């Protein structure tokens, strides 16, 4: 079930004459609904075809200026018009990202004999707003479905803007396209079944993508992992016939003065190991490599944009399975770098592979280390399914990431790492245990990971267990299945670090 190719996307000052679907907006201007982006030459013909005022018809069909719900209406000469709520007339990039994504998801489901040509006419002017429309359009147009399902989808998108010819608008188009393409790459990896995407095949994918982006890539197979002492990754992957891997992707542009290290959890399937999950709890566990997908996808977008920040992305890949060779609760592991860890629960495997990768990445003395993982159910209980957790060694680092998330339109919430969390990890037989009790599980997991990043190094942990995979109906620009959470935040952070 491959993803359908993303449509081409361009800027234009007016909608093309061959447009199949025109997307316009309905905004709230001090309590009055106003139409946004309706071309003057189309307004009168729309009123004639529809037999009334467009805004009134939209409201009668359940549409509103205060939401991103799209309403489909017939237009002249076979044109179909999608009217979508924008919210306040002083729109933000995220408002337009959501509205455009909702409209494109509707377009994606329309029938036809050939791919549809969509014009998004929401009057974006400023570069950040244009970028929001571009991202929303491409993210909303994403689909992971069986080939030949019968729906042609969206073939091309025009973003209509009076600023279309400005250099800054063209740059916004490039940046939005690059970021959205990276998010969709992450989504496709997450959605791929675990019998097709496993440590070895994932590293093949990573290598292909990295080389296409002219990035450096290095892969440790099981023999290299054993030679170099990656006891955590080897232990987690030891129960599977599919052997673990560690991949390093590097981007080092000239003039870079800052080194950002990104570490992603890449459990390609998590059965829970000998601490076996329930059948229902196991069903979506192909998504447990979402962190690795995010960091690799992000570095490709960062490189494509030419950001002058050195970035190294690490993907710690293993399949956590039960077998005669599986690691056991109470086993003592010797991690990369020599720290010993008592395994408290084989279903807390993500932090183990991440610990090895964090220790290795820290040897390169990066200025900032960020790990991304679908790590704990406790974080989902605390923050729900649409908000990711952020835990950091210092508030300055946390604020940097929260600012980037706001720019990107992703939801993160800072959680603490209290001193007592580390105390729960005390072990009588090793340097530390892998986990403590059920209370504050997300915080204890962060305390564990922090042990593998040297003191004095800026570090943050992103627990994306909630929003990484959407088991429900699509919303805004978010599809069912893999979401690509954290990619946009990491890209926005790299731009901010460039200064």
Q: What report would you give on this structure?
A:
The protein folds into two domains: 8-165, Leucine Aminopeptidase, subunit E, domain 1 (3-Layer(aba) Sandwich); 187-498, Aminopeptidase, CATH 3.40.630.10. The protein starts with 7 loop residues before the first strand and ends with a helix. Helix 5 runs antiparallel to helix 10 (290-305) and helix 13 packs across helix 16 (487-498). The chain is of the alpha/beta class. The chain has helices spanning 40-50, 54-60, 93-108, 127-141, 167-191, 199-212, 222-228, 231-237, 279-282, 290-305, 350-362, 377-383, 395-408, 419-423, 441-450, 487-498; strands spanning 8-12, 21-29, 32-36, 70-74, 80-88, 116-120, 154-160, 216-220, 245-251, 259-270, 310-320, 332-334, 340-342, 368-373, 388-392, 412-414, 432-433, 458-463, 469-470, 481-482. The model has no long low-confidence stretch (mean pLDDT 94). Helix content is 37%, strand content 22%. The protein is built from 16 helices and 20 strands.
Provide key terms for this protein.
7-stranded mixed sheet, 2 domains, 8-stranded mixed sheet, Leucine Aminopeptidase, subunit E, domain 1, 499 residues
């Amino acid at each position: 079930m491959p993803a359908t190719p993303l449509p081409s996307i361009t800027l234009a000052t007016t909608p093309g004459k061959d447009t199949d679907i025109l997307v316009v907006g309905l905004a709230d201007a001090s309590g009055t609904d106003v139409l946004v982006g309706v071309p003057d030459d189309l307004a009168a013909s729309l009123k004639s075809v529809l037999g009334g005022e467009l805004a009134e018809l939209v409201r009668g069909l359940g549409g509103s200026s205060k939401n991103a719900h799209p309403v489909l209406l017939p237009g002249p000469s076979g044109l179909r018009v999608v009217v979508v709520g924008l919210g306040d007339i002083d729109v933000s990039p995220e408002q337009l990202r959501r509205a455009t994504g909702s409209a494109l998801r509707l377009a994606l489901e329309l029938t036809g004999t050939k791919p549809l040509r969509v014009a998004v006419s929401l009057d974006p002017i400023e570069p950040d707003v244009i970028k929001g429309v571009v991202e929303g359009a491409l993210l909303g147009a994403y689909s992971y479905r069986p080939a030949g399902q019968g729906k042609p989808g969206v073939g091309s998108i025009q973003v209509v803007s009076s600023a279309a010819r400005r250099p800054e608008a063209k740059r916004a188009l490039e940046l939005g396209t690059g970021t959205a393409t990276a998010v969709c790459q992450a989504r496709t990896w997450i959605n791929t079944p675990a019998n097709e995407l496993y440590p070895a095949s994932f590293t093949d994918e990573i290598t292909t993508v990295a080389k296409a982006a002219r990035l450096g890539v290095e892969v440790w197979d099981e023999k290299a992992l054993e030679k170099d002492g990656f006891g955590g990754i080897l232990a987690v992957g030891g129960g599977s016939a599919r052997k673990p891997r560690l991949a390093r992707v590097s981007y080092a542009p000239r003039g870079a003065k800052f080194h950002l290290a990104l570490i992603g959890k890449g459990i390609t399937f998590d059965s829970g190991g000998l601490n076996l999950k329930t059948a229902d709890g196991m069903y979506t566990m192909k998504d447990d490599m979402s962190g690795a997908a995010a960091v690799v996808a992000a570095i490709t977008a960062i490189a494509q944009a030419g950001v002058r920040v050195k970035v190294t992305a690490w993907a710690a890949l293993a399949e956590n399975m039960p077998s005669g060779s599986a690691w056991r609760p109470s086993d003592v592991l010797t991690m990369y770098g020599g720290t010993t860890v008592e395994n408290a629960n084989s279903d807390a495997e993500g932090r183990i592979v991440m610990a090895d990768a964090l220790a290795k990445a820290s040897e390169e003395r990066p200025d900032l280390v960020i790990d991304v993982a679908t790590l704990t159910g406790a974080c989902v209980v605390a923050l729900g399914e649409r908000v990711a957790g952020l835990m950091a060694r210092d508030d300055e680092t946390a604020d940097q990431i929260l600012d980037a998330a706001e720019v990107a339109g992703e939801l993160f919430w800072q959680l603490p790492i209290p001193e007592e969390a580390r105390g729960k990890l005390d072990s009588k037989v090793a340097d530390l245990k892998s986990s403590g009790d059920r209370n504050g599980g997300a915080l204890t997991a962060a305390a564990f990971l922090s042990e593998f990043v040297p003191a004095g190094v800026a570090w943050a942990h992103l627990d994306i267990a909630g929003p990484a995979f959407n088991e429900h109906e699509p919303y805004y620009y978010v599809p069912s299945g893999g979401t690509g959470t954290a990619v946009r935040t990491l890209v926005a952070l790299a731009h901010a670090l460039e200064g």
